[in-house]
Amino acid sequence: MNRFLAKHSPLLILAALCIVMAFLLPAFSTPRNVTSVVYRTSVVGIVAVGQLLVIIVGGIDLSVGSVAALSGVIAGLALRDYHTPVAVAIVLGSMTGLLCGAVNGLLVSKGRIPSFIATLGMMMAARGAALLLSKAQHITLDEGIRFLGGMRGWWIPVAITIAIAVVFAVILVFTRFGRSLYATGGNPTGARLSGVPVDRVRTGAFALCGLLAGFAGVMLGSRLGTADGTAAEGMELDSISACVMGGASLMGGEGGVAGSLAGALIMNVMVNFCNLKGYDSQWQKILIGALIVLLVLYDTSRKRKAGLLRD
After folding, report:
1. Where in the sequence is the domain holding 154, given as residue range(s)?
2. How would you classify residue 238: left for phi > 0, otherwise alpha for psi between -120 and 50, otherwise beta?
3. How many domains are there within the chain?
4. What is the pLDDT of residue 112?
5. Distance of CA 270 to the CA centre of its chain
6. Closest by CA position to 228, among listed 141, 154, 148, 146
7. Pick from 5, 57, 198, 308: most CB atoms within 10 A?
8. Res 246: pLDDT
């Protein structure tokens, strides 16, 4: 039972948090408010899934927010200046993220640069490129792409997020690539001696993270109706926090898609509660930061007692 509770503690924490919030503030549990929380979680949830892949292999990607902004700008320019079809613009934005992620992966796996430094450089370069291409101005997106962000129904981005989560959950659990990710993060030397192509696995993890960040950037732009170089600021920290709150270990080799989405929901539940209570944004940051630390400390303690966490 202890192992079961430790393994599924993010979902249990989310359920307990929602019950407490609903008891303290009845307006929290209204269908409209619950829908709003789930809707706002869709973008960061997609980024968190990509971040999870990198964390599992023992890395970290600080560039996802900047890559998302650059991808949104590329898609916006394709629509505004070249009048490309919506599908082509979405693909161009996503491929921009894939390219940035692949560069990160090659720098880490072949260049032997720590992921923190490699992705920090990409974060600055991608943000600068986004501001340069957009000329630090908003790029208005036409109505054709607005469906992706939920303008024709809040359920569309939510359904897309769930579909992506299911696909990557299957990949992690049932495929050779998924097992290689865990093996690489858990014991790189042992994985290499066992025949796992560690460098290719790491590069693939970063490339997929970039792909999902790029797609999330296009989705964010379609939700806001505009794309600009300042979008998605702080998303890298949100995605990392969601993964850690969801049970992923920054040492690598641990984590799951369901837990990461639960972590993203926990963060948005806390933000929503603060907004409903009318707390200032400064107090929101203090409260949310403290709760994140306490929840991660609680989860780590349970895992250590259950024998699921390595010292």
Report:
1. 43-265
2. alpha
3. 1
4. 93
5. 17
6. 141
7. 57
8. 86
Can you point out the beta strands (E) in the chain?
139-140, 226-227
Residue 73 identity: V
Is 88 among the domain residues?
Answer: yes
Stretches in the chain below the pLDDT threshold 70:
1-6, 299, 302-303, 306-311
Residues 179, 44: Cα–Cα separation, whole Å = 25
User: Exposed, middle or buried by CB within 10 Å (0-12, 13-18, 19+), for 39?
Assistant: buried
- Could you give the C-alpha distances from 246 to 8, 184, 310, in angstroms and in order? 9, 20, 17
Residue 20 lies in a domain: no
Sign, CA dihedral 275-240-42-247, equals negative
CA dihedral (305, 307, 308, 311) positive or negative: positive
Q: Is the dihedral of CA 229, 233, 237, 238 positive or negative?
A: negative
Residue-wise pLDDT for 154-171, tens only, equals 899 999 999 999 999 999
Query: Can you give 38-65 as a three-state secondary structure string?
Result: HHHHHHHHHHHHHHHHHHHCCCCCCCHH
* DSSP per-residue codes, 168-220: HHHHHHHSHHHHHHHHHHH-HHHHHHTT--HHHHHHHHHHHHHHHHHHHHHHH
Distance between first and last Cα of the chain: 21
What token pair was written down for 136? Answer: 């630090």
User: What's the CA gap between 273 and 307, in Å, rounded?
Assistant: 34
Position 83 in a domain: yes
Q: Is residue 198 part of a domain?
A: yes
pTM above 0.90, yes or no: yes
Neighbours of 286 (CB within 10 A): 11
